[in-house]
């Protein structure tokens, strides 16, 4: 272990910023990123298919973002009160998000999902939330239920905490359903409709696409039972389309949550929705027992908003999403050819510039089928890819900065990695 890694482990548990770490044999410290690449402190180049776990959709150090940030950091302040850049970004979000009549800022995606669930409970006067097994909705206590439950799996709709330190009482407030199973969701709702404030879902759960009619069925089910529908678009927002999953799948939720891309690599998130719901977070409103607390010290930070504005300006240009889809399709088609040629039971989930490899021949429609393959071999494959100069953490967050040569290089490394471990 080199000295900088040792310093990290002395200062932080496991020497890690987040919950994910690379295997020791390939672990490294990033020195800087440029375009489609990141570089380690020892000078090794990696094609970046993590991209900050999604925020860097247009690549690292995009010239237009850099130029905007140069101006912004001349006054690297946090004002707490209104500022022009925060207002400008809010207007862009309202104009481009199909369900948005108003937005409120957070700092992380976990903030946004927490605020959305709180608003739903306040608006409906109900307390329970239905989420989907395997769906990642952030790190708040409600979200960390049955995100990655281990076998044997609990029976639906029982929730299983994914972390120690979560009050047991919250398990009764979160109901769990299988993704893509509208019949199961309908049965769960029938048993708890008068208590359910919201159904919250990643429209594309991780990299699993919704079955035709599934999201439409959730919309109808919510409408029939006075339940709010929340889309967690922290990942899908501005990635699957300019209007996110709402545009791609043509289903409009009552509330939606955003993070990652909208901050252009800086910490920023938002919850968006109908004005009659969002008004419950209005600090100027008179006393109201339904009034909700949302916000924190750095909400609407002008430097973060500047990065977001510049990033969204690039994404708004004609042809952007055609290219992002082309990048994802090029990889998925190439990977499918490799698995077939090598005789490996592997498949690539996802659509648009978002993909995950699973080593199974079982059709993947939900969390349980997504973990039905050889998870140890999937981890070995990830490590082999990093060793070959392709940075991934199991998912592939492709960026607009990737060239066709970059994708072909990723596929070449994948081919070599598959050959080396099977």
Shape: globular
From the 3D structure, determine the CATH topology of the largest domain: Aspartate Aminotransferase, domain 2
Q: What strand line-up does the widest sheet have?
A: 4-10-9-8-7-5-6
Please tell me the total number of domains. Answer: 2
Task: Explain what you see.
This protein is α/β, with parallel strands linked by helices. The chain is built from 13 helices and 14 strands. The chain has helices at residues 3-11, 63-72, 84-96, 109-124, 182-192, 214-225, 244-249, 275-278, 302-315, 320-342, 367-370, 375-387, 404-421, and strands at residues 30-34, 37-40, 45-48, 102-106, 128-132, 174-177, 196-201, 228-232, 255-258, 269-273, 347-349, 354-358, 390-391, 395-397. The protein has a seven-stranded mixed sheet, with helices on both faces. It has a four-stranded mixed sheet with strand order 1-2-3-13. It is globular. The model has no long low-confidence stretch (mean pLDDT 96).
